[in-house]
Specification:
heterodimer, A: 6-stranded antiparallel beta barrel, 43% helix, B: mainly alpha, 7 helices
């Protein structure tokens, strides 16, 4: 028993050695064959080898590709995120710039129109910025940044580039208060431009005014222009006040009709105004 | 004293803010108004007659910023203060969430009074109620800011005294 065991071990060792040598020889042979191009002999081995290698390679490469793709995707995503953030910031900045340029352009347009009014008017004009509104929401007054120092006194006409907005009721050294057409206290002598029908333009507290004391049966149509009559001592004749937007004939026993007038100027979003120094002119003209 | 200083500072600041941003804070004939909640906060904490001085002073400060007849703002602020004193006198131990509807009611009442006195009664419904709702909504935030400012000012003055 004891003698057999070493023989078996020896045989086994020889067999393993032979197999290893054979395998190495096969590999060497294959490699040499592949290298030196012994095509006819080595081709089946080469194919076999390449097939086996390809299967293993493809098995190995698959998870690598997945990993690479995963990291590439994430890296790409990160990159996209960074780029996206930068683009968004850039976009926001450009939008701000655009708004700034649009604002400057619109301000320039408004000033141009106000300047046009100034050139058309026979009175000196002072430009002012709106700096405040009335504390009471239903009161239609605004505060502007021109006052007595600029020659602005009470009862001077205030215009926006769209038309008349009201008149000054108080003036302080560096600011003035303007009573808008829409305020219920506002009353302006007015006429319908087309038919010369007279009335009084009265504020209602809302965004529209009403033309009162216009008798029934007089020729007034929707769309007629309403201009200042020039008889109230404040507004010069011929300034555009608004347009007739609706006519209500009123009750049977009444003698007046109810005419709603839409002011030509948007009274809710005034930013700049021009004030006609009318009172000053009148005072200077007086002996 | 610190409460008075905080109230007068914020009162004046709110008057300027409301005048300058008025159009942006306005919905119809109602506006996000801070003055009445401020007066209410002061009224809950300060008894007569000290509280009246601030309210009268705030009224005087507010008058130039409105075209309403002289005395209307003073009247509505004083009436708001007195109403708050009256309610808090009858309901001691009010929590802050109890004060919210009281402020809403007082603001609506003040708005109704102001509209009646200035000849704009046609706007009472619904704008006075909307005004009350606005006041009730901003009161908790305003209360927090005012309390914080009062505490901060107190601590600051104590520090100055200690340093001196």
């Amino acid at each position: 028993m004891n003698n057999r065991t070493p023989d078996k071990k020896k045989n086994k060792k020889r067999l393993v050695t032979a197999c290893a040598v054979g395998l190495v020889a096969l590999i060497l042979f294959s490699m040499v064959g592949l290298r030196i191009g012994a095509q006819n002999f080595s081709t089946p081995f080469k194919f076999l080898f390449m097939d086996a290698s390809a299967s293993i390679q493809s098995a190995i490469v698959r998870p690598y590709r997945w990993t690479k793709q995963f990291f590439a995707f994430n890296g790409g995503c990160q990159d996209i995120k960074v780029k996206n953030r930068a683009l968004l910031q850039e976009n926001a900045r450009l939008r701000q710039e655009l708004v700034k340029y649009q604002e400057a352009y619109l301000a320039k347009e408004r000033y141009r129109k106000l300047l046009k009014i100034k050139q058309q008017m026979e009175y000196p004009v002072v430009f002012a910025q709106v700096i405040g509104v009335d504390l009471a929401p239903w009161a239609g007054t605004i505060l502007v940044d021109s006052g007595r120092k600029d020659g602005v006194l009470p009862d001077m006409v205030a215009l926006s580039w769209q038309g008349v907005i009201g008149h000054t009721i108080e003036s302080f050294p560096t600011s003035s208060r303007i009573l808008l057409l829409s305020d219920p206290r506002s009353r302006i002598a007015a006429i319908i431009q087309r038919t010369r029908v007279r009335g009084v333009l009265k504020g209602t507290g809302s965004s529209v005014c009403s033309l009162v004391y216009v008798e029934k049966g007089t020729d007034v149509e929707v769309g007629d222009k309403v201009i200042s009559a020039g008889t109230d001592g404040i507004f010069p004749k011929g300034l555009l006040l608004g347009k007739v937007s609706s006519i209500d004939p009123g009750s049977m026993d009444g003698i007046f009709q109810t005419i709603t007038v839409e002011p030509s100027a948007h009274l809710n979003n005034i930013e700049e105004v021009s004030i006609l120094l009318t009172t000053r002119m009148n005072d200077q003209a007086r002996p | 004293m610190t409460r008075f200083l905080v109230a007068i500072f914020f009162g004046y600041f709110f008057i300027l803010l409301e005048s300058a941003w008025g159009s942006g804070l306005q919905v119809g004939m109602a506006r996000v108004d801070f003055l009445i909640p401020l007066v209410a906060w002061y009224g809950f904490k300060t008894p007569l007659p000290d509280g009246l001085f601030l309210v009268l002073l705030l009224g005087i400060l507010a008058e130039p910023f409105t075209v309403l007849s002289e005395g209307i703002y003073m009247t509505i602020l004083v009436s708001a203060y007195l109403l708050v004193r009256y309610i808090s006198g009858h309901m001691p131990g009010l929590r802050w969430w109890h004060k919210v509807p009281v402020v809403g009611f007082v603001a609506a009442e003040s708005q109704i009074l102001a509209m009646l006195l200035s000849g704009a009664a046609q706007f009472i419904w619904p704008w006075a109620i909307v005004q009350g709702i606005f006041a009730a909504m901003i009161f908790p935030v305003l209360m927090f800011v005012l309390e914080f400012s009062e505490n901060f000012l107190n601590k600051f003055l104590i520090k100055i005294r200690l340093i001196a």
